[in-house]
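Why does this matter for the project? Reviewers at the last site visit asked to see concrete outputs rather than summary tables. In response, this paragraph embeds two records directly. Each consists of the residue sequence and, immediately after it, the corresponding structure tokens. Nothing has been edited or filtered.
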Amino acid sequence: MTGADQAKNLLLLLATFAIAVCGLVYELLVGTVSSYLLGDSVYQFSIAIGLFMTAMGLGSFLSRYVAAELAPTFIGVQVALGLIGGLTPLLLFQAFAQFDNYGPFLFMLCAATGTLVGLEIPLVVRMLERVRRLKINISNVLTADYVGALAAALLFPLVLLPHLGLLRTGLLFGLLNLAVAGLALLVFRREHPRPRRQLALIGGSGALLLAVFLLAPQATRWIEDRLFQDEIVYAETSPYQRIVLTRDGERLRLFLDGALQFDSLDEYRYHEALVHPALSLARQRGRVLILGGGDGLALRELLRFTGVGEVDLVDLDPAVTGLFQSNPLLTGLNQHAPHDGVLEDLDLDGTLLGLDDGDDIALRERLAWLCDPFDQGAGLHIGAERRHAVDVLASLSAHLWRVALAAATIAGTWGNAASSRCLG
């Protein structure tokens, strides 16, 4: 194998890693946007994964009909995937706002993106045929593909979504697909019959995605103006969620990740029913714990009762608690309850289980950890006498995860060895 062939082999493997990351990110974006718009994340992610996998199979099947010009076809696939995948969140938000039935558009977008992703790996394997034997090519390409998928699965929830948001994440990876197209054009330029035409196509597509990337805040606001019925008076993306506050006259509504949290017209019914029965039956009210409730509305109802000495409020998102302490519209709604002197400890980290053992927060009564209703999860009840068991279970889960990962690695190594023997 010549030095040029080695360079092609390495660059195509790097390209495989990059396109694997892009493909899984697009899949996660579809599931996340659909969950944001429609709720029921289990259903939305199941549909997105199923459609993508089916379409990838279709793309792999169609790759057999690419008889010649493998490099130009691969480059064209990257450009198309960069445009469609990069604009996926924007297209989905627009379709939801524009059409009465969002489902068919979602299916078509998943089918198009998945088919293009399915075309990539067979084309890369065939492009490498002249460099190495088939069994080595398949092993190397699939290894790069699976490692790329792992990288995407970790980056998406931990880095990309909290810091870039939905629109810019899609656009960034669309640009990455175009960069792979440009790299392939550079490597295979001597085998390409129309390099200038595809170079112009890559440049124009990149300019479009870059322009939308720079205008992402304005695009987000434009989308939300179409999605929400009332005027948006506040919008922020925290590390945990998208926060949107709307107003229609005196009526206020809070949305977290698109899900309605309260409506000022009737929120008192929920918060009275949440607080008043429990406090009326409580034998002691000296110290009270509120889980969640960063809006201060439950605290407002709590302070109507005499005998409340101290209140510990634990909320996940500091952006929510800060908003309801500083925004004049919202402080009027919660009657400045978060500023009341009884609120001794406003924990902005949401680390309830990290409290010191000696810190008595009146956990003698049973507490409820309520899951997001849009995720249709079941509530998990935790008693005070069992709070240490939670840490034990978490530690055990971490050890089991390590064991499962090691077993999967061993199984993958054995499977690659078996495949190499079969193919050899």
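We now turn to the second protein, recorded in exactly the same manner.
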Amino acid sequence: MRISTIQAFNNGVQGLQKNYANAIRTQEQISTGNRILTPADDPVASVRLLQLEQQQSVLGQYKENLTAAKNGLAQEEVTLNSVNTVLQRVRELAVQAGNGALSQADRESIAAELGERENELLGLMNTRNARGEYLFAGFQGKTQPFVRQADGSYSYQGDEGQRKLQIASSLSVPISDNGKKTFENVINAGRLQLTPAAPPFTATPGSTLQVSAPLVQDEVAFSGVTPFPNNGVEVVFDVAPNQNNYAIYGLPRTVGDTPLPDGSGTLDADPDKADSLVFRGVTLKFSGVPVGGETVQLSVDPTQQKRGILDTIAQLKTSLQGPASGFQIGDAVAVAITNLDHGMTTVDSVRGEIGARLNVIETTQTDNDDVGLVNKSVQAELRELDYAEALSRLAFQTVILEAAQQSYVKISGLNLFNKL
């Protein structure tokens, strides 16, 4: 086969260039520490590396969300702890106010402190976070959630939304609780109506019987297997000489109805001692002397099923500030104490939910960190260079390049004129 001089030169140059490019590429790998310099070096590994980098970027965003969620929930937990502390003090004041030996001045002093605690609670319920948004306003972060009305009552201006943050590929965690759920949806122990509204019984001549406001003290019994009747009940006292005996009928009551199975009792003979009627979770107190034939009805008021914590404190304060009978003070205190207990239970329930969310955040953060470490390990295996193999390969490529250079010099010096 004939090989022209130009062909020999071209073959030699191409060989030198190829060997030089291989050596240079290996040297670049060693200097960068990366096995893959371009996607063409390993297309499959390059695609996998791109996927891992995207996943690492998502994990970075999840990490920021976890930090934001943890900080938000920690602030909410601290705020609710403060609310619970204030509520415990308010309950202590309510118990003190129930002391029948207190003077009006003493009750007004308690009412004054209740007013200060009320303002403190209002401030806590309108707490803002680091971004200037109200913690308990739901989605309406820029709207003050609790506003005091002209009559001293309170209205909730937020909504029932709950903000969430995504902290994993298929997991979002709530980072807030709306004020309606936390402070307003509190079961009202004074949700029963009394008819007549303010005994004594002027329609029954000679009767000195007085009746307290009905109080739902046992929610389990009130709504249990044998619940309090939805339409209410009527307490009927027998005619003389059995006027101290009473029976309880379901409403509506018609002639010939029999008393409810667990609805009967007898007042004691001491008119100065209050008697308690306990019926399916509802407590009613009687004082005075009946003459017989008195009736009183208890019915559920659908508009009073819930009462906010601030409204409970405001109503107790108002009751203590003005002149009132012992029964009225006792009624206000009994309702306030029971409602405060319900309110603290609700707040504690939300605090429990926050604790559960913080636990989820902690475990998710650990899981995400573990996934990140695995991703980095896989990336290292796909991208990083094996230096021992690369240095050995470079030495071998250097030998080949030097041999090619020497052979090219010798071959390029050959021609037919040297033989003449």
